[in-house]
């Protein structure tokens, strides 16, 4: 994929880009400048606009599409863009914000029908009804939200993409270990991070909501399962087990789960979540790394730099 | 207070006691015996009934009141009762189980009216209505349950007694630090452990319920607050803040709170809970310790032995 | 499966069993007795033989097959056998030790050909040759050893069974995440615990060897890979990567890996190992647990008791 | 309270301020400048004086009062002052350094008489005499020192203010838990941080002394209690208990207490210290935060940002 | 060395031994017995005296010398003595308690003169005078006390023996690293554990005193150094540095040092203490282990079992 | 020693120096500059060359010797050099790179013969032959490599210097504790870090090799010992013990040793390594510190600042 993140130091760019963030600063000597994060589908880059006027500040607000000419240079080990020309793109130019956002590599429709199919495969009607009820209630956001503000699946529809990958992985594992209840695995996967549609602010410029900070997606969804069961009139043990699956999916108290996994499927759900999240992080950093070299350090993987062997292809 | 825990090694007892637990064992040489935990209001003691018959096993089930004669001796550092005579007390003898249970030193009525008064003092109607709704919903159990199966306030009405003590402490602290919102402190205190009426099995022979083990009293009560708000039609920030107070009252993720305290009253609630729980534990072990000596080790206080100074008359 | 572990307290048994361990003791009052661990394919049970003579001590050495009559009773929460009659089985009685050993549920031949097939599927000749060389070198022991002295796969051929399950899981995961190099996964799985044939003493009455204690299976196999490469004249990066896969498969320094995973397949290998080991442990304890009840505490799973839901038919 | 910390970005100030710290720097391009921390009773702000001459360096030493005109701007998320005019204030202008120092909200006299009163209320003469002796010995510094260089009560007379608040809290708690020995609590509160008058350099521009770094206020005061007892001829257990109260008030070895609390009042003293220190930190950051927003991160509170609810009027 | 610890299971002994501890117990069936710990210079062994009378209890108090005949048998992995005959030794029999106590392998006189010599070699008069003052003040106890109640140097004169070994080690290290101030090392070694003469109860049947538990040998000696300096009229930095050496010798807060080492000699003192303590522990357990075997687990060495190679002839 | 690190802020230098590192940067306003690390035998300093041309970039590559005139100034607490004149030195000027590299204070020849002597003193022929074989195999690099990229002994021949110091320390300790096998200590010292000649890139501009990162010097040398034994036909327990010494010398799993020390000499080797590494670090920072002041913080010593007492001469 070509895009802003694929240019090398020293190259000149002439591109349409989306403003993701903008902050105003003042140089040591008192002159105003703007720090602008510009993005396209490939990722983002920081740029500086020196000697910025008040009009500039108004013109270059987040979610504005701009035409930019500039040079890529290196600043403290990361690429930065030195803007030579910049102007907002007029509404009639045929661009839409969605053209500049990184999204899941699978379409929303495809993901939606895949999840529907997995729910259809459930045999336990209580588990099936609660899962279907909740996915329906939050369907629109669920299909658009990222899975996190950073670290992994931090792109449009990242949450649904993470869930779909985990469902496929669950199916494979349940096939190999027949004692696993695939209904519980599927429901656990679909619900485990659904609270993020309340914890996070939305699909773009994603931040934590106040409820996200004070309650968290785990407790939010445990409550939602309780409410769903009440509304559907289900009073069976399945309700408590679904709540437990969500509650325990971070694996340990110190990682945010007030109870550790205490049923078989909860233990395995925690691993399925980990494998998929880590594969996503590894694939992203390794795709930007040449054979025989190391990735940048990955904070959410204990700050490790991974090595890319030379003998692949 | 006199009672079974107040006798010294070598003394002979002749008392009515309640059977708290009974388990059957077999000696090294294959003979059956019963291990019986006997209790009265002062606490409990382990006893052995050797050469126990099948009738004995039937006769000495938990919650049976018995007349016992025996000697106190020391077994591995703890007092044990060697039973010389034992017989069940006939129904007409005028004893009731309640006569043998340790209970809070304040009456249920007194505690109940004190809590009502604190709720009455709340000025924020949303906080007040949710608190009143939940205390009403669980009133009977709340006034009878212990606060835990062991460690602190592990006696009949221990939960309500813990709450009342914490309310008084909250009032004193709010008086000294006027920035504290006493409504939040009172509501936080009343609700923080209320989920224990679902987490625990009941006021006597208390164990954890399955829901207690898999979900826990914190998440149970966070859900209950959400339901109460729905039923009362309250959609204000107060709901989330009350949920946060309950959620965070263990202080840290590794102690079972998926979010740490993030508002002023949540931070202080955690300390109020600690001070009251620790004073209860300290008072119990120190009341059984002579000046110039150490208490037994207290597991929930990092296994410390506390010293009782000699100069407190 | 019927067997010694399937009897309930109070039942009388009349079975052929194998002596797994025997230790002599003395009662408080100075009389000798034997503590005998008896096993069959279902597991093992502790038994006491009171008033044991010197002949008894000689007759009931480990690896002796005996005919036993006795009663199951409960001693400190675990089943124990009270021996009423016991006698060694004469050589001509048609029993062999193997009849009493727990073994993998798949035959050695089947496992062996499955592993051969996975090696055959490898496309990188260096990886393939080293793996084949080492599996050949230790083939006999590899197919008979357990994977551990306790915790998981602690039965005859447990090591090979663990490897075969992990290979199938690797294949499924590599199918879902195409960036993974399946050669590395398969080789990593086959070699990761192969050092256990030197670390452990053998398929039965398994203990740690001195080399196992002082060097450990990880370093043993890292050395073996180096030697194999020397003997095969391979000096490519693949050697180092295979060593790294083995070295890092415990995931963290504090779990015994001097280097954390630093390539994609090493990270995933660690998870595959965990999922298979945990499923084995969970299946074993849950198979002995009734719906609606808890398993015994599992030391290697952070001492948790797992709950078995009631709605799995 | 108005003052330098109450201005917003973009505003112009024209104020008398005190220089708290001054350091000379050189720009990237080799030109000298001064970084000056200016303070008044409301707190402090960083300012830059560009193209500073040698005279400037001499004129703007710490503890100089200056008249400043300048603009507030934002530099990396914190307010900074861009100096437009600055001049030292002549001695005759009627300002004193004390006019610019943040101080406790209660007068020294009031705090002093309150502490005297608490000492007067002690009933145990040994505890009373040692406490009175030490407070007298260090009275002047005790009433002027801060309680720390940062984190909490880091202002003139902060130490005494912290002690007075803790005494009031002790009285309230001792009133609710009658088993507590209020003499020990009061003495523990008064002495617990008194070693800070040796550990710290003084009431302004506070740093750690060498003795503070190498021995620490806890051990310093334990020694002082020993000396005081010697001078007063007291050889009773009270001496050791007072030493223990000071020694253990950080609660755990890893927090700097070589012994954990081992008497009831030591355990509670640790909590009283925590509640008062945390309330001071919380009140300071929350007073600068609008309802519905978060405070800055507070390092000494595990780096948390606290939320200020919207419903407090 | 021959002695009670050198007998093997099955052997019969006929020895004079010292009673170290005695506790009375009751068998399951209610009969009294005595558990007696018997010792000689080689160590100790547990013995049981069944059917003990009241006279027995009086006759076999700690510190009584007895003549015992009995058999060594194994009880739960440790040797135990089954007493066949026992009688107290009459005063005139020519034994003294000291004949049965394990002591340092070097005489008190030799150790005393060695320490005197090291003090004599000090060149800094302040360090020398304080060290000499304190060693003189506690000379008698210092030369007789053990260095601990268990773990290392837990025998008569163990403290002095530990100090002398550390002095020799200090001299060797200071010879190799000339930047080290040997005066500080010697003084640090001599004073570091001197507080144990107050922390511990005495040379035999050693326990912790109340002051030992509540204050600890580190703080006790820091105070003593302060007092010594006062009495000698020394007000130089050396006093604080000596206090720091003692204060920091456990190396980290969590190991009981409220300040970590902050001068060069303090850092090295911590290592010298460790090397000598560990060599003492290792030598003791390895002396009881055959080549090719493992020692018992050593609690104070992270519960490790050490291996004794076979090639040390 | 005079040199670039010995100048004070404000002084002007006119020196020949070696370029250690060079990186190109761009100022905020887009102008290119070079950051150059210059070194001589005393250490290194950072310098800025403003308005750097493309020729400058080519001329001032690492390992170039330059003549520099400039001023020392302070930038964020560290000395920096402001270059006024700089020019490369022509080949004929009689300087060699070695003139500017910090090296061990003892000559390679002296270290080499000392190590030979220690090997000669070994009495166990197996230990001696393996050690001699390996030191011979890597002799050249062993005598030139540093012991680390930073922290301690990070200079030319630092590895051999560290080993020689440790050998002398081992000899002294083995002299005091005669149970120690000096052969094992000497061999352990010589081999413990020898894998660094593969782990690190070389004597100057030292970085980690890929094998260093993925396998590490410990596992590298364990393998080498195995190979050496194979080549020498040694199959005795000594091989395993030497491997264990290397494997365990970091002391704990979390510090990189997959097995903790399990023989006496392994435990002591860990301490000898620590004492020598820490003395090297302490001596370096304290040599740059004035009496009565603190060193810079030392990252590898838990980020402590050490105090230099005033009374050493």
TrEMBL record, chains A, B, C, D, E, F:
GO terms for biological process: rRNA 3'-end processing. GO terms for molecular function: exonuclease activity; nucleic acid binding. It comes from the Bacteria. Keywords: Exonuclease, Hydrolase, Nuclease. Pfam families: HD, tRNA_anti-codon. PROSITE patterns: HD. Residues 162-278 form the HD domain. This is 3'-5' exonuclease. It comes from Rossellomorea marisflavi.
């Amino acid at each position: 994929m070509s895009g802003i993140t694929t240019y090398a130091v020293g190259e000149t760019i002439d591109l349409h880009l989306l403003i993701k963030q903008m902050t105003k600063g003042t140089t040591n000597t008192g002159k105003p400048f703007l720090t602008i994060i510009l993005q396209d589908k490939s990722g983002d880059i920081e740029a500086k606009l020196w000697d910025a006027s008040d009009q500039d500040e108004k013109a270059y607000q987040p979610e504005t599409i701009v035409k930019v000419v500039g040079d890529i240079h290196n600043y403290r080990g990361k690429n930065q863009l030195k803007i030579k020309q910049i102007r907002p793109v007029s509404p009639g130019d045929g661009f839409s914000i969605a053209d500049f956002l990184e999204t899941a590599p699978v379409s929303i429709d495809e993901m939606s029908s895949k999840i529907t199919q997995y729910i259809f495969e459930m045999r336990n009607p209580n588990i099936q009804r609660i899962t279907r009820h909740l996915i329906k209630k939050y369907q629109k956001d669920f299909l658009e939200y990222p899975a996190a503000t950073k670290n992994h699946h931090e792109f449009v529809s990242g949450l649904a993409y993470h869930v779909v990958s985990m469902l496929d992985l669950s199916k494979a594992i349940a096939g190999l270990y027949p004692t696993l209840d695939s209904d519980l695995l599927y429901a656990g996967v679909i619900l485990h991070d659904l609270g993020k549609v309340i914890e996070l602010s939305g699909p773009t410029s994603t931040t934590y909501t106040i409820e996200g900070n004070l309650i968290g997606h785990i407790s939010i969804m445990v409550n939602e399962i309780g409410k769903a069961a009440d509304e559907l009139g289900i009073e069976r043990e399945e309700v408590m087990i679904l709540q437990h699956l969500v509650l325990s999916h971070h694996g340990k108290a110190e990682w945010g789960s007030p109870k550790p996994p205490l049923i078989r499927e909860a233990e395995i759900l925690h691993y399925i979540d980990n494998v998929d999240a880590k594969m996503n992080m590894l694939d992203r950093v390794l795709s930007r790394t040449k054979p025989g070299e190391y990735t940048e350090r990955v904070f959410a993987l204990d700050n490790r730099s991974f090595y890319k062997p030379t003998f692949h292809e």
